[in-house]
Specification:
The chain has helices at 9-21, 40-53, 70-78, and strands spanning 28-32, 60-64. It has 84 residues and is of the alpha+beta class.
């Protein structure tokens, strides 16, 4: 398998959008919930929005965080992450 790494949520959204348009579909995203520039939850919202508008395939987004309480898990699921 291949993988790519980005430094923030804005780059994650751009990478998913770009690879999807070039038929190199990303199938899984491990998304840090607390990133600089754009946090993982906002990035997940934007990726889900892109899917509604133009993406052919919606990758499974798994939220990663040091916090695992019910409120944190709920926030991740509400923004479109598949799991936390």
């Amino acid at each position: 398998f291949n993988y790519a790494e980005v430094s923030n949520g804005k780059e994650a959204v751009a990478l998913v959008s770009k690879t999807n348009s070039t038929n190199k579909t990303i199938k899984l995203v491990l998304m840090d919930c607390e990133m600089p520039v754009m946090d993982g939850r906002e990035a997940s919202n934007q990726i889900n929005q892109l899917f509604e508008e133009k993406l052919c395939f919606l990758p499974a987004i798994i939220g990663c965080s040091g916090y695992s309480g019910p409120a944190e898990v709920d926030k991740s699921l509400k923004c479109g992450m598949a799991m936390h």
